[in-house]
Design goal:
Shape: globular
Strand content: under 5%
Distance between the termini: 48 Å
Order of helices and strands: HHHH
Number of strands: 0
Radius of gyration: 14 Å
């Protein structure tokens, strides 16, 4: 079971960094963000193994890039939903 601190780090990191990204750019952006996340996790004192274990608990397959790609897709969907709400309010 992953440590609560690394889970909190990862969830906060995703919240802060996963922004709406067009589908054609998602895979490359996810790879870049995964590398950035690994570096920031290490700077925060978490090992690669800690991060992998946390991802394994949060995402099927336990792959950081895939987890981030899913978060980017969700951010895009949420952004589109928000835009729909704006149009309804007009």
């Amino acid at each position: 079971m992953a440590d609560d601190d690394v889970l909190a780090f990862l969830e906060k990191w995703i919240e802060d960094n996963a922004v709406a990204t067009p589908a054609r750019m998602r895979a490359e952006r996810a790879e870049n963000l995964a590398e950035q996340c690994r570096k920031e996790a290490e700077e925060a004192g978490f090992s690669e193994e800690d991060l992998e274990e946390a991802v394994g608990e949060l995402a099927e397959g336990g792959d950081l890039s895939s987890y981030i790609e899913e978060a980017l897709e969700k951010a895009e969907e949420d952004d589109e939903d928000y835009g729909d709400d704006e149009e309804e309010d007009a």
